[in-house]
Design a protein that fits this description.
This protein has 13 helices and 2 strands, in the order H-H-H-H-H-H-E-E-H-H-H-H-H-H-H. It is mostly helical and 308 residues long.
Length: 308
């Protein structure tokens, strides 16, 4: 029975992360995205701060502090800012499919940093994903559902969140290898809390005081389940399974995001959305695993705390 626990943890993590865009979309259409970020980091930041200083210990070398601060502000804070403000202008299902292209940014970003030519599979997979993106937005920019329509602003912000997350993974990899994914992720969340709290305005207390019960439930879900429990489940699984088993599970996230957006928010799943999404997922999968089976390490699959 114990051998199935890591797989159960993986399934839970995918459900939490995949459904998070729908709940976040519900929240940012009910309140200012900045207030949501203030609330989330006001809760999570101190908790992670207690973990960093009270459980794991700081133990970050002085020479690594500039990289840690840069990764925290550009990667962690940038990712959360672009993701939350992007979801205010983008349906959850479309956002989930855009997020699915993020591994391509990491592949080409890593090749650029290492001054290596991208593998042929990465190039072919990227072309397929680009075609999928074109198909996805064939009618998405004019289509609308119960939760609103896609805008260029929203699409741009969602892609920007992918760039920020890619910078987190690429620039943060030396830190993760040296100190572990949990310690670095918690430290970056703690550091990113300060700029997030600066988003508070005179209206923030009123927003908190008048938040309806449904929004509080959604807030509890995205904060406790998606942001905290999802990452705990992921780290539990990757610590016990080879990454060649865990990495493919990540391709279920955009599918869950599309289904969650439809079930929770009543978003329309168009033919072009389904076809474009299938091409995007296929392209990303081929870029990562095509040609030869790429044996990733658990550190290669380390992920930031998702705030979507």
């Amino acid at each position: 029975m114990a051998r199935f626990l890591p797989f159960a943890a993986l399934v839970l993590a995918m459900l939490f992360w995949g459904s998070a865009p729908a709940f976040t979309r519900f929240l940012v259409t009910s309140m200012p995205p900045g207030d949501l970020l203030v609330m989330r980091f006001a809760v999570v930041g101190p908790i992670y701060g207690l973990y960093v200083f009270g459980v794991s210990g700081w133990r970050i070398a002085r020479g690594d502090l500039p990289r840690l601060i840069a990764v925290s502000l550009v990667g962690m804070a940038g990712y959360n800012l672009a993701m939350n403000f992007g979801l205010a202008h983008t349906p959850a299902g479309v956002a989930g499919l855009i997020v699915a292209t993020q591994p391509l940014l990491i592949i080409f970003g890593t090749s650029l940093v290492n001054r290596e030519r991208p593998r042929r599979a990465a190039i072919v997979g990227s072309l397929v994903a680009i075609i999928g993106t074109i198909v996805l937005f064939g009618d998405a920019l004019t289509a609308s559902g119960n939760s609103g329509s896609v805008t260029l602003t929203g699409v741009g912000l969602m892609f920007a969140s992918g760039v920020a997350w890619s910078l987190f993974v690429i620039a943060g990899k030396p830190l993760i290898e040296r100190y572990g994914s949990i310690r670095i992720t918690t430290a970056t969340v703690m550091i990113a809390t300060l700029p997030m709290l600066s988003l508070a305005t005179a209206q923030t207390p009123h927003t908190v005081a008048t938040l309806p019960a449904a929004a509080w439930l959604a807030f509890a879900y995205v904060t406790a389940c998606a942001m905290m429990c999802g990452t705990l489940c992921w780290n539990f699984a990757v610590g016990r399974l080879h990454a060649s088993l865990t990495a493919p599970f990540l391709f279920s996230i955009p599918v869950i995001a599309v289904v969650s957006g439809h079930v929770i928010l009543g978003e329309t799943i168009s033919t072009s959305m389904a076809a474009g999404g299938a091409l995007i997922i296929a392209g990303v999968a081929w870029a990562q695993f095509g040609g030869r089976y790429r044996r990733l390490t658990a550190r290669d699959t380390a992920r930031p705390m998702r705030a979507s």
